[in-house]
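RETRY 2/3 - previous attempt timed out on the joint model. Re-submitting the same 995-residue input unchanged.
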Amino acid sequence: MKTFKLSLLVIATALFFSCDDDDDNPVQINPEELITSVTLVLESPSGNVTLSATDVDGFEGPSPVVTTTNGGNLQANTTYTVTSISLLDSSDPNDIENITDEIEEEADEHQFFYQISGLDATASYTDSEADYDDDSDSDLPVGLSFTLVTGDASSGTFTLTLRHELDKEAAGVDEGDITNAGGETDTSVTWNLVIE
Amino acid sequence: MKNILIICCCLCSSIFYSQSCLFTLQGQVIDFHNQEPLANAQVYLPVLNRSTITDQKGEFVIDNLCNLNIYLEIYHISCEPYQKEISFETNKPIVFYMEHHLEELEEVAMKTSTVARETVSAQEQTLSAQELTVLSSGTLADAISTMGGVSTISTGGGIVKPVIRGLTGSRIITMNNGVRMQDMEWGDEHAPALDLNSATSVKVVKGASSLRYGSDAIAGIIVLDAKFPKLIDTISGNVNLSGQTNGRGGSVSATIAKSTAKGWFFNSQGSYKRLGDFEAPEYVLSNTGLRQVGFNAHGGFNNFEKGFEIHYSFFDTSLGILRAAHIGNSDDLITAINSQEPNVVNPFTYEIDNPFQEVQHHLVKAEFFKRFAGLGKLDVQYDFQFNDRKEYDIRRGGRSEIPAMDLDLTTHTATANFTWDSLDDFVIETGLLGRYQINFPNPDTGVRRFIPDYDKYEAGAYATGRMDFSEKISVEAGLRYDLHYINAKKFYLDTRWEERNYDEDFFDIIVGDDEFGIELLTNPEFTFHNWAFSGGMQYQPNPENSLSFNYSLAQRPPNPAELFSDGLHHSAARIELGDLRNGQETAHRLSLTYVLRKDRFKLKVEPFFNPIEDFIQLETVGLQLSIRGAFPVWEYQQVDATWYGADVSSSVQWNDQLSSDHIFSFIKGYNRTEDLPLFDIPQINITQTLRYNVPSINASASIGSRLFLQQNETPPNFFVFSQLAQEEVLLRINDAPKGYHLLDFTFSKHFTLSNRNNLILNALGTNVLDTAFRNYTSRLRYFADGIGRNISLQLIYNF
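RETRY 2/3 succeeded.
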């Protein structure tokens, strides 16, 4: 009988503790690694072209990514330079986070790739890990800055892809070939462009 | 010596009491359990050295006693001795209740309630303690997949979930020593949070036929039990050491148990397991290592009439997730599927790196039982479980140390069961259940919740009855009702809320909007009434043949993932969406079991037919273009589905040394709504074992063959947009890998050291030919081959 009373006591205690129901709402989470916009400015003496992409609800939300091109078409036979790619998390307008800073801090784990299809243009890296880390002497590219050299008039697509935890040593990767890079895609955006 | 005592006693009695030795003790000895008189019990008065035997009515008479207080002993072959000083009145009969031996008690329980089999008519199978020992270094799912009709889905070496006849997750109830596991079984990557070493038997009931545990076991019930030898006043136990080549690690497990003649018992078990990366024949499966700690302690008091038990169990595991399976978008998945080789292969290591899971499970149980003479047994239990799951992702900004998912699930359960087993051929079992559960996703992750905060309440009641009409026919039937109430608080992206059309159907559950920016807060509440019925009969015309038939109906409410999930599933590179509109599944199952037992031949044929209305499954519904590339969107939808199939197993004793086992399982599953094959239906498999036993030297060896045929009925593949190719590409996600054949061996030798000490040496080899294969129901089949050759050595010392 003693044991029975004991078990009743245990049950009663448990129910007591579990019934402190509170109607507090859960805390809202502001996702920390979200990227909601990508912007890069292609600078040239003949004028700048700004490519941007926004995904207001992030990659998990249903609204699609919207890409825009400002500054008109690209000019033929021109060298465009990009000094930095801006990645932002603007999901909370009161607390806009700069994701580019995080990529600079983890330069050895990130790399951008530029894929050009139909356009007569070539892109090449102009930075290396050592540019972002004083302790590094690595000349492997990160791709936050690059040049785009245009050729003849043409039209096609330009796809910017950011990979995380990739294999930078794999064949062709340091020249911008994504085929063997592996890793995980953080961003992948495509713009339709015209060279005139 | 005895004679001298007798003379002394006689002298004493004649000297001091000769004048008043006129009292008569009348008694009747009755079986406590079924109230029947016990004939042939010996009644002994040691002081007087007098004894008598009870008659057919259990009655006895001892006359010419000199004292009304007397010490007496009663013995009966199947009972604990009765030894007590009593006082009596002459010619007034006294009733003596005898209790069965403890081991007898278990046999009684087996005969009358549910210890041996859960049901008489459903399809069941048990792994014995001996079989389990050999399998104990693997996972629960791997161990029971040696049975026909049971398979696995895996996400890594250590993340393996059991599948019963093609169904898994929330459709399986796992009972761990009387406690229903609450370990977030809704997730494909959530393996059961328990240590197989703590169990001494594992039973699988296919289908929802055992209503004692719940109404939602559409696939089946796995019952793990821990029984320890009731050796009186000695310490017993075992130590189990095992090492394996694949994973280059091993485990150690130890058990000690002690019980006293009065009925007190205590036992404790602990285990530690450490494995590095598993290896496929051609490469290392990087980041598939695991670490596992298990601890159990039981203590209590137990005799025939009453008893209690306190049980605490702790389980802690870290499980690496194949690095190559962690991908960013559907292009990464296309690349992985097309390359046929993992994109990350690192040298072997014991390190577990991101992505990985860390799961802790605490379980406390207090149980009390009492038997009532001539009625039955009452069992009252309270259990508490705390499950903490942390999933670590590959993250930026030094956040890899912070879990991307951190869920705490706290469960309180109280149950009461009563078994009326006093009648010989009729048993009724009935019970009540109350459960309260809190799910808390820790907001410190910095990642939106995949599963929201919720409280869940459950109340259930059931009754089952079994009647043995004759030696040949037994009939059983039962009914169960469970009420589930879920009260959740969930944030939705405004855009998701509208895209789901929830703004039309669920506008009244919004509790906050403007203050949460691009999100809104809702308060979904659900009430589900679940009914289950099971009935069947067994017909055994002679000892050689038996035929059973069972029908069961079960209802399962949608689990949290099916209602709420809302986000990216990394290893599948897909957005998975639950639906607040999802309702219950209703399953019907018809099963037939035929068993033939000849001298040297045993055959078991188990066909089944299992239609499920409103079956919930993930289906692809479209594509989401995001800043991170394209993701296919998968949604939990309800369809009508049908499964059918059969398991056929036979064993042959060829001669005194040689025996063989043969198991054949096949399952078909169709989506009737869309007239398509279902996802993840296990392949046809044929398992054969040839065993050579040499009893004279206590050794045995076996060779096993496992043949898995290619799944020939798969759902269609579909096109996805590839950012890289800038066009629609066929995603071959449903292609079935080729069939394969694996060869295994075992060798076992027993050494008897003394009466109670023995040593067992087991050597096991799986996939000894190092065959490269991919299993259709493995989630890793897109990324890498299955586990290659593994040789393990196991040393067990029993004391």
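The mean pLDDT of chain B is 87. Closing ticket.
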